[in-house]
C-alpha cells in the first residue's frame, strides 16, 4: 500500500508542472546556448534561431575593443582635420581697395600729388545672386566660389592697361556664405561665420553659448550635405582628432540622449539603468544593477545581448556561414564566466553599448529549490486527490 500511495503522489507531482509553471525571471543558460546558430567556442547545437553566442575571452576582448566606433574624422575623410581654404559666396560683403604707383592715373587724380599710399577704397559691395561684384573700369567680376587672392588677380588683370601699375586688395567685411548653423540643446542657437583660419566643432558650439545638458548625456550630430554622423559630446572633448574642422554649410545639432542598458534575471536589481558617464564597462553595469543575487544567480553564465556588426564578428572569429550574406547586423549574446577571477578582468574592459541587455541566468540549483518549494506548498486540490486515493485503497 505504501508504494502505491507513493507512486500516486509522484505522478501528481510530475503532472503539476504541466498546469503550474515554475516561477523564474528568464531562461536558463542551457536554454539560451542550445538554440544559438553559432556558439564560439563551439559547444552548442543549431536550432534555426538567428543569433550567435560568443564566450568572452581575452582574444574576443582584444578583437572587440574599439570596434564599430563612429568618428567624425573617419566619417568625413582625412581632410576633415585640415583648415578649409576660405571661398567667397553669395551674400558676402566685400571692400575693394585699388592702389596706383603714382598720381594722375585712373583712380588717383594729378592734383592729389604724391601722398602716402596712392589708393582708393571702393564702396562696400555685397556679392549678388549671380555671384558677382562690379568694379569701375573692370566690369562685373566673378566672385562666388573663388578666394580673395583669385578675385584680386582678376581685377588687376582687367585694369593693368588702364591704371598705373595697379595693385588690388579685396577685404571681407562680412562673410555670410561661409557659416555654420548650430542648433538644438545649446544656449544660443545661431548661424555663425567661420573664421579665416578655420574653426573646429567645439569652437562653434562654444560660440553658440555651449551645451545645456551634461556632457555624457549630449550628442553632437554633424550634417554635411547628404551625410549625417552623430557622436557623443565627450568624445570631442577627450579626443582631439575627433574635434574636426567645420566647413561652410555644415549644420551642428546638439541633442540630449540618455544612454542606458537593461538588466534582468538573477541580478540584484532589474530594470533600466542610465550609464551616468561617457563610458561604462560590463563590470560597472553589473554593479549598477546591484551585482548578482547570491541566492539565485549562476555566476558562470552572465549574458549580454547586443546586435553586432558582421565586421566585428568576423574579427572575433565567429563562423558566419549559417547567416545570410546580406545580414550586416547580427544578434549576438556574449557570455562571461564570473566564477573565476579572469571573468572579472574581462568584464572590466568589455565596454557597454547603448540599449545593451544584461541577463544573469538562474543557477540550476535554484530551479530544484523552487520545485521543492512547490512540492511543499502543493495546491489543496492535489492533496484532496491523494486523500481520495487513500480512501479507495483502504
Overall CATH architecture of the largest domain: Roll
According to DSSP, the number of beta strands is 18
CATH superfamily of the largest domain: Outer membrane lipoprotein wza domain like
Q: Briefly note the structural class of the backbone.
A: alpha+beta
The helix-strand sequence is HHEEHHEEEEEHEEEHEEHEEEHEHEHEHH
CATH class of the largest domain: Alpha Beta
Spatial order of strands in the largest sheet: 1-2-17-16-18-14-15
The CATH topology of the largest domain corresponds to Outer membrane lipoprotein wza fold like
Mean pLDDT: 81
- Assign a percent range to the helix content: 25-40%
Instruction: Give the C-alpha Rg.
Output: 36 Å
How many DSSP helices?
12
Describe the sheet with the most strands. Answer: 7 strands, mixed
What do these coordinates show?
- The protein has 394 residues and is an alpha+beta fold.
- The longest helix is centred in the first third of the chain and has 18 residues, at 2-19.
- It has three domains: 29-55 and 259-371, Roll (Outer membrane lipoprotein wza fold like); 72-83 and 189-256, Outer membrane lipoprotein wza fold like; 93-174, 2-Layer Sandwich (wza like fold), CATH 3.30.1950.
- It has helices at residues 2-19, 29-33, 58-64, 72-76, 148-159, 201-207, 233-238, 282-288, 310-316, 341-349, 364-376, 380-393, and strands spanning 38-40, 52-55, 93-99, 119-121, 125-126, 132-135, 139-142, 167-174, 179-184, 190-193, 218-224, 227-232, 251-256, 260-265, 271-274, 297-309, 329-336, 357-362.
- The protein has twelve helices and 18 strands.
- The strands form four sheets. A seven-stranded mixed sheet has the order 1-2-17-16-18-14-15.
- 28% of the residues are buried.
